[in-house]
Amino acid sequence: MKILYHIGGYFIMLQKVFGKFTKWNVLRNLILREIDVLIIGSLGIVSFISFFVGGVVSIQTALNLENPLLPKNLIGFTTRQSVILEFAPTFISVIMAGKVGSFITSSLGTMKVTEQIDALEVMGINTYNYLIFPKIIALLFYPFVITVSMFLGIIGGYVASIYGGFCTSADFIEGIQIDFTPFHVSYAFIKTFLFAFILASVPSYHGYFLKGGALEVGKASTTSFVWTSVVIIITNYVVTQLLLT
Amino acid sequence: MIKIENISKYFNGTKVLEDISTHFERGKTNLIIGQSGSGKTVLLKCILGLFEASKGEIFFEKRSFNEMSLRQRSILRQEIGMVFQGSALFDSMTVEENIMFPMKMLTKKSNDEIITRSNEVIKRVNLINSNKKFPSEISGGMKKRVAIARAIVMNPKYLFCDEPNSGLDPKTAILIDNLIQEITKEYKITTLINTHDMNSVMEIGEKIIFLENGKKGWEGTNKEVFKTENKGVENFVYSSELFKKVRKVYLKS
Question: A128, B55, B77, B138: least buried by Cβ within 10 Å?
């Protein structure tokens, strides 16, 4: 029953987020600030992880290609497929649930326990719109992060394959071009948009409705990470079932 | 004036406030006192609309809060200033930005007008030279001043203060009390202060409501509090030897 209560609360929150709008000139600055913190601030860690995980994917593929009849361009092919279909959109989103999600929950939670949200409400401001809407809009730029992740993941795979001596540059480049299905990229970005919305809204719910003090802020950040990851994984399954089968 | 009639509040079936009726006058500092857990903050939040009262009515002048639409409530809230217990300043904004915030959000004033008004208020609460500092860089007393400045910047009709001098040294606490009282008189605001600070009761309690286990235990002024024979008030206000002596001296004189 408690889960139904939270699901209901989440959708009521979303309804209020799109209720009375904050003045545009205020909202614009908030959106730009959120883009800076949530999107630009995540590029470093996403780039780092993508490059090295892309490398690991290609090395592991190469080490599993023991049969001499299998073409070496499979390393490039597998790296591309893994990175575009799953690693960049899903794996990075789970990492972002830890980075961005925890940040959103703890910042809103701290505002809640220090009565800053009450202060906004007393002023007659739609706190849902003022605090959550800019985060949702900022995360519409999340596909940009995923594009960078896809690119660097494949570059990481390329560098690891060439410098590890697993295949030639021509093999790898041929591999990333064979059997290319443009819809796979569309599928990845459809997922990314959905994950972006989840990344902004689920942690916001956990932060906004937090009760208690500093200890609860820490607990809520952890709970938020768990639930955001769960929702992302379930959505991933459903979307994959709907779009790829 | 704010009038409340038969306010009750329940949380999950537990009664926190029971049948409280009173009125708070304009231009006076009205104090709500009582022990921790007596329902002071809940009453304040019910009047503010942060909690919906389970029973009873609240009137701002002659406007019934219960009958107001969400839009009317939102407009009413622009007539309210609130000083929170922990000041509730926005950490990411400077002192000046905190004070200008309500005007930027809720009015169509030009930037120049906003800056002029904000400077007036900053001067009124003696905060000059701290404009560009962040809340984390100023003392507790200064934070309260910023909170008061932010609360009065929109020229509110009603000022609510939740334990405005908690966590402050006695000297700063008195300064904050006096500042609130001066502002109340100057701008003819209906001020409600939620406190358990006895100095505030003695100094600025022009009207005092004493809450006891969620019920109104007593009502009077800071002069009457010396003469009352209400056991609850006596136990609460005169719990320290110092205040017992103060009372004796007052009654003798």
Answer: B55
